[in-house]
């Protein structure tokens, strides 16, 4: 057994002493944050099974029931609003990834005039308050004579989703190397073949993560959508309006289903990342 040097022993002792000085506060803060995050979600899931005799959301527990799930579409306008939100979110996510991928590649791998300005615009889009983005979007649509509705919601959601997609994909691209693409070129692959067969598979987990983030940002947006929705009603707009007269429990059911689907996709994405890591290893 090799002897431990005095320097190593001293460093180990300092680390133990530092861990003792930290005390329980880090763990307490961690669990408080976790509780703040999970309590609303757990409450939503639990009360979606609560028997509400008045057909309106109540926090008095009246017994377990699946009635609201069996009658999801019985609330006038709720199903249509939810469908509109899902369709807008899906299209916005797909279009945002399609636009954000080449933009992220250009910003991360190439140097060109105006690169700094484009990067600043991307981050400014993220930093801008929602009310500013919504009012600016409405002013633009009115100035060009475009009536508000489904398409203005979609355009606006793509506009603010692209920035988040670019940030996520740039981080993924920064963690990959061009060596494999260059090797594919040395083996006779064209630039497009190298991109399709090498780059895209490497970026696939990042693209999925960026798409999910864009979908989540879009499906629950209220402030920006309220400016540009016109006669169209999305799920957040319906919930806000219904809250004034009493919210139907089906709203919690839809929220629970969205959370369940999002959790499933996140787990699948994690499994895909681990599989790719083992393959590369």
Which characteristics define this entry?
281 residues, mainly alpha, 2 domains
Question: How would you portray this structure in words?
Answer:
By secondary structure, the chain is mostly helical. The chain has 2 domains: 20-67, no CATH class; 76-247, MetI-like (MetI-like fold). It is 76% helix and 0% strand. It has 12 helices and no strands. The longest helix has 32 residues, at 78-109. The protein starts with 5 loop residues before the first helix and ends with a helix.
Topology readout:
Elements: H1 6-22, H2 25-47, H3 67-70, H4 78-109, H5 115-127, H6 130-143, H7 150-174, H8 179-186, H9 191-219, H10 223-228, H11 235-245, H12 250-280
Helix pairs in contact: 2-12, 4-7, 4-9, 4-11, 5-7, 7-9, 8-9, 9-12
Outline type: globular
CATH architecture of the largest domain: Orthogonal Bundle
Report the β-strand fraction as a percent range. under 5%
Biggest β-sheet strands, sense, barrel: none
GO cellular component, one term: plasma membrane
Transmembrane segments: 23-49, 78-105, 117-144, 150-173, 194-216, 252-272
Subcellular location: Cell membrane
Protein name: ABC transmembrane type-1 domain-containing protein
Brief rundown of the structure:
The chain is built from 12 helices and no strands. The chain is mostly helical and 281 residues long.
């Amino acid at each position: 057994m090799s002897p431990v040097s005095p320097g190593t022993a001293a460093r180990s002792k300092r680390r133990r002493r530092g861990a003792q000085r930290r005390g329980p506060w880090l763990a307490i803060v961690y669990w408080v944050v976790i509780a703040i995050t999970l309590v609303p979600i757990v409450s939503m899931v639990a009360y979606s099974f609560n028997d509400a005799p008045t057909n309106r959301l109540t926090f008095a527990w009246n017994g377990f029931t699946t009635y609201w799930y069996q009658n999801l579409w019985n609330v006038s306008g709720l199903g249509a609003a939810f469908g509109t939100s899902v369709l807008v979110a899906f299209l916005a996510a797909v279009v945002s990834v399609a636009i954000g991928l080449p933009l992220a590649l250009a910003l991360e791998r190439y140097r060109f005039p105006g690169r700094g300005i484009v990067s600043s615009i991307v981050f400014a889009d993220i930093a801008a308050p929602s009310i500013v983005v919504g009012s600016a979007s409405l002013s633009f649509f009115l100035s060009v004579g475009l009536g508000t509705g489904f398409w203005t919601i979609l355009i606006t959601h793509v506009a603010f989703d692209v920035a988040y997609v670019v940030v996520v994909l740039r981080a993924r691209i920064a963690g990959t190397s061009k060596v494999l693409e260059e090797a594919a070129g040395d083996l006779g692959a064209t630039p497009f073949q190298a991109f399709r067969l090498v780059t895209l598979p490497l970026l696939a987990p990042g693209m999925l993560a960026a798409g999910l983030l864009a979908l989540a940002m879009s499906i629950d947006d209220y402030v920006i959508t309220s400016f540009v929705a016109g006669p169209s009603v999305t799920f957040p707009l319906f919930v806000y309006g219904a809250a004034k007269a009493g919210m139907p429990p089906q709203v919690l059911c839809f929220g629970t289903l969205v959370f369940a689907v999002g959790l499933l996709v996140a787990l699948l994405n994690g499994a895909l990342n681990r599989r790719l890591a083992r393959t590369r290893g």
